[in-house]
Amino acid sequence: MFMRKQRKGTIDVWWLYDDGGLTLLVPYILSTRSQWSQCKLRVFALANRKDELDIEQRSMANLLAKFRIDYSDVIVIPDVAKKAQESSKLAFDQLIENFKAPGEISEEDEGVLISEAELLGQREKTNRHIRLKELLVENSKDSSLIVMTLPMPRKTSVSAPLYMAWLDTLTSDLPPFILIRGNQTSVLTYYS
């Protein structure tokens, strides 16, 4: 896919949080190559407060301009914390069904099965990932490529099956997807 010329379309960048700029840099570099030159860059960012959408959109546009990143659109998403639809939750529950622990988790199954306590403790993050999937389908289902900041879990707080279920939920049934995680070292520079 990366070797052949892409038709006119978009590369959607979902910049969930600042990772040093790698999530913005890689799709921008891709868009400068002849195979992807027909594709426009759209940048999606999450809003902290609903009443400051316009300010956040302008500040994101200014940031991209400082870094000399060509983009076609900046879209600030305000309602990622909203409750996910019931059908989406049911699909997620079906995905993790085989990995749920029937009762208490033994020491050897720690990190291999998902406990009810873990599901309860990670309820907000799970809802966020399910909601992100809904937003991805709503905004990016027709894009040529999706690039998103890789959500990183804390090693001791999330089991492997739950984390993989989050990633599967985010990426399934969508166009080609790249998950990127920078190391908080800035890769973008600008001169003032």
Automatic annotation (TrEMBL):
It comes from the Eukaryota. One of its GO terms (molecular function) is sodium:potassium:chloride symporter activity. The keyword Transmembrane helix applies. It is a multi-pass membrane protein. It is found in: Membrane. It holds the Pfam family SLC12. Residues 2-192 form the SLC12A transporter C-terminal domain. GO terms for biological process: cell volume homeostasis; chloride ion homeostasis; potassium ion homeostasis; potassium ion import across plasma membrane; sodium ion homeostasis. The keyword Transmembrane applies. Keywords: Membrane, Transmembrane, Transmembrane helix. Its main location: membrane. This is SLC12A transporter C-terminal domain-containing protein. One of its GO terms (cellular component) is membrane. Coiled coil: none annotated.
